[in-house]
Design a protein that fits this description.
Layout (H helix, E strand, L loop, with lengths): L1 E3 L8 E8 L7 H7 L10 E5 L6 E9 L5 H17 L4 E6 L7 H15 L16 E6 L7 H23 L7 H15 L2 E5 L1 H6 L3 H7 L7 E8 L8 E11 L8 H4 L7 H15 L5 E11 L11 E2 L7 E2 L7 H14 L5 E6 L4 H6 L3 E6 L2 H10 L6 E4 L17 E2 L7 H10 L7 E5 L5 E2 L10 E2 L4 H8 L1
Parallel strand pairs: 1-6, 2-4, 2-5, 5-6, 9-10, 9-13, 12-16, 13-17, 14-15
Antiparallel strand pairs: 3-4, 7-8, 8-10, 11-12, 14-17, 18-19
């Protein structure tokens, strides 16, 4: 999409948000409200067509004014943008009304996020594609402020990062496997100026990344370690490590998943896709921070070479692990990626993102991301960063007593154990390898992919969560 900060674009339609009970003094909008065909309840839509010009006005309800916030405003714009798409309108304006204490600077991201994310589609492999693109004018009653151009550019880059994540995650596993994933990330790095280094299966073994190797060695598509470096603050000693789970497909291994649970397992690299999308946004906006993205990419498949329940394996961090369940593989790949980021890239803080457990769907559904952390202040900053996105987070406890649930009987640790507190113990397993660094684990199994439209922005399939929140946190 292309955006304009003026009203000179010749448009076929204008999106006009109205809150419930708003006092409209005259004109056709007042007439529409007076005859009670449009009540302006939240996300209500009504289209008025001027009989002379055929210009369409898409009224969208914002609901009650005292309940309106930026997230609901974005949802409403998203609903209207979807309607414009359904009408095949490719040039339209969005009339941005400043309600409450809202500013022009806040409403530019509302329009960009609402229009782009709500109208996203992944139709790459359809014979008949319904391609859609639009030009959108962002219209204010007063003259646009000077800094809006920079805000617009920044927001477009962030949203493009979300699209990068969605596109990677939506790719099928026969197209996107560890080697091809690594090649695509390297190509993206060349295009945008992001440093990317890829380690192959021999280098992975030479570095002692036994846990990653054991998970991926059973597939013909062998593992890759993908490292993305954005070191834009040379005088800052802080380096954030962003670790993404990169299982390009997960059969469950010998602990085989039921077929119905396997059909969407191309999405098991949701954390990796989000890591790439986040790095894209950071680089495009030249954020003056040091960020290292690390992806342990593997395919968990079955063969005579695959690891098996009962195996004892090592790890780059030195601890031994008893394999109880080969379908608890994500934590094994992540611990080697975490150790690598600390020992080879010298990160000082860590965030890992993973579609890690089915248990998190029972606990939080597809609404909120589960957080396990050893640093409550780190989590507080995350929730502050999420305020102006529609992404939600919830911290679960990490009590010492939970560690008994994944203690190994014949090794240091077990990769699975009791059915109790599955999301907590999976996260805390990773926490055993952070070497005391401030760390947050984000279990995005419920929020990176959805079988329904959770919101106007979080549609079926890959959502791109939590790219926008983490960008805000890092910036």
């Amino acid at each position: 999409m292309k955006f304009y900060l003026d009203s000179t674009l010749q448009t076929a339609a204008t999106i006009v948000p109205i809150f419930e009970g708003e006092n409209i003094e005259d004109g056709f909008i007042k007439q529409i409200i007076d005859i009670d065909v449009f009540k302006a309840k939240f996300k209500d839509i009504y289209v008025y067509i001027d009989k002379d010009t055929l210009h369409q006005t898409i009224l969208v309800g914002l609901g009650e004014e005292d309940k309106l916030d930026l997230n609901k405003y974005t949802e409403a714009i998203g609903k209207a943008a979807r309607h414009a798409k359904s009408l095949k309108i490719t040039k339209y304006g969005v009339h941005c009304k400043l309600y409450k204490d809202m500013t022009q600077a806040e409403l530019v991201p509302v329009v960009v996020q609402g229009t782009v994310l709500a109208t996203y589609q992944f139709e790459k492999y359809k014979s008949e594609k319904k391609e859609y693109d639009a030009e959108v004018a962002i219209i204010f009653d007063n003259e646009p402020q000077a800094e809006l151009a920079d805000i617009l550019n920044e927001t477009v880059n962030i949203v493009d990062g979300v699209i990068v994540a969605r596109d990677f995650i939506n790719e099928p596993a026969n197209v996107l496997y560890p080697e091809s994933f690594a090649n695509r990330v390297a190509k993206l790095g060349q295009d945008i100026g992001l440093e990317v280094q890829v380690f192959d299966e021999k280098q992975i073994q030479d570095m002692g990344m036994e846990a990653l190797w054991e998970v991926g060695k059973g597939s013909d598509k062998l593992p890759r370690l993908i490292v993305m470096r954005h070191m834009a603050a040379p005088d800052d000693s802080e380096i954030l490590g962003v670790i993404g789970k990169g299982l390009t497909f997960d059969t469950g291994g010998y602990s085989l998943k039921p077929s119905d649970s396997m059909k969407d397992m191309k999405n098991d690299m949701g954390g990796a896709g989000a890591a790439v999308g986040l790095m894209y946004a950071i680089v495009k906006n030249n954020v003056k921070k040091n960020v290292i993205g690390v992806i342990a990419a593997a395919e968990n498949a079955i063969s005579g070479h695959s690891y098996k329940p009962g195996d004892i394996i090592g790890s780059m961090g030195g601890k031994t692990i008893e394999v109880i369940n080969t379908d608890a593989e994500g934590r094994l790949t992540l611990i080697d990626a975490v150790t690598y980021s600390i020992e080879k890239e010298n990160v000082t803080k860590i965030i890992d993102m993973a579609t890690l457990t089915g248990a998190v769907l029972v606990a939080l559904g597809d609404i909120a991301t589960c957080v396990i952390t050893n640093d409550d202040e780190f989590y507080h900053k995350l929730t502050e960063a999420a305020k102006y996105t529609d992404e939600k987070f919830w911290q679960l406890p990490a009590y010492e007593e939970y560690k008994e649930l994944f203690k190994g009987k014949v090794a240091d640790l077990a990769n699975a154990g009791s059915k109790l507190a599955g999301s907590i113990t999976a996260g805390m397993f990773i926490g055993e390898f952070v070497q005391g660094k401030p760390w947050m684990h984000l279990d995005i199994a419920g929020t990176a992919w959805s079988d329904r439209d959770v919101s106007e922005l979080s549609i079926k399939g890959a959502t791109g969560a939590p790219v926008r929140t983490l960008y805000n946190l890092i910036k």
